[in-house]
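Hi there. Long-time user, first ticket. I'm pasting a complex I've been working with (about 472 residues overall). I'd like to know whether the download I got is complete or cut off, because the file seemed smaller than I expected. Thanks.
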Amino acid sequence: MALKTLGPKAAAALDQELMSTCAFSIDQLMELAGLSVSQAVYRVQPLEKGRRILVACGPGNNGGDGLVAARHLFFYGYQPSIFYPKRSKNELYQRLVKQLNDLDVPFVDDFPSALAAADHVVDAIFGFSFSGEVREPFPAVIRALEETKVPVTSVDAPSSWNIEEGPPKSGLGSSFMPATLVSLTAPKPLVNHFTGRHFVGGRFVPPSIARKYDFEVPKYEGIDQIVEISPVDQKL
Amino acid sequence: MALKTLGPKAAAALDQELMSTCAFSIDQLMELAGLSVSQAVYRVQPLEKGRRILVACGPGNNGGDGLVAARHLFFYGYQPSIFYPKRSKNELYQRLVKQLNDLDVPFVDDFPSALAAADHVVDAIFGFSFSGEVREPFPAVIRALEETKVPVTSVDAPSSWNIEEGPPKSGLGSSFMPATLVSLTAPKPLVNHFTGRHFVGGRFVPPSIARKYDFEVPKYEGIDQIVEISPVDQKL
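Hi, the file is complete. Here it is re-exported in full:
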């Protein structure tokens, strides 16, 4: 069975439905999404492999998921640091930043230096609503992520990839292949171009909603908030 | 070292501080508290011991934690049902109920029948702000919890117990001893009268806040949102 995916319009509609008809608040969903991301990082980058996690956050919801993940990573015993150059003025994001400030999690300005000092990077720059051009100051960040040997975990989409078509054919992002991808709620079509370890997270989608949007909720184990998708399930 | 506890006034002040200075929303905190409770239930009542979990919810925040826990239990593969006779009109609680309705989790009216059909009960009736008398319709529920052989997990406090002094000296609740207690953020003084399995949950308290309120955050393992406190740590 092919892995069913959700295109950007369907993913946006699903998000809207979760927050309207399904009565979830964005605080709740972002908390659970960020928790999923933190569990995937714990799986691929156990503490003994190095604790310094650089979390690169974009201006929107993907960045918010990164901020939440960073907080959970702190509590697991990691040393997160945050690159968050375009801060949202939205009150929720300001609160997520304050929660990190209270843990003395550093916010860094110089991405290349921070990357050089990191054991792992979380790419929470752009999510399923990304399209078009990578805007400043992110081109240099994408380039650094393309070139680095530090393993990268991308949240919902490798940033700069087209949600339907995957990596750009040429130029910025065309050779960006993160080690890990965490698809939130459902994989996006770009996963068909992804060759790393793939997790699905966001264990909160009602079965009725999965049926309506025609995707499969994978079989989570125990109390896990993520499930790894084997390449066989993904590609057949 | 004796286990440090937080009395009802300090616990209320801590909650207020988390939601003001610390910038957490109640949605976030309740989500993480309920998640902790669900993980404790998973630990003491693994799926193979029986999946039918009756969650008894009171009118306040303790009941809200129960509603969140029930949702997570559903996703783990349990069959939760909810007894929630005094529903809050607060929008957050209405949303938590809707999230359960969308999963077809049943709300039940007849507590004794529901209890007879349950493998495990979550007591999310009263939390650390409880004092005084048990009001209708809860006296019969407490009595049933006192008498049942079905194991009970209490959230933050065995309902009807005095937060400082433990079980009532006589009458209703005086012989209520749940099998399991999940203390949220910090144990309350009543734990000194508790003889079952004791967990602490709520892995979100900044170390600076724990210092300010003078309690110890126990050592959580891995990505766990709960930690079991051994009787030795608890009683010495």
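A couple of notes from our side: Residues 177 and 235 of chain B are 17 Å apart (CA to CA). The domain at 8-235 of chain B is CATH 3.40.50.10260 (Rossmann fold).
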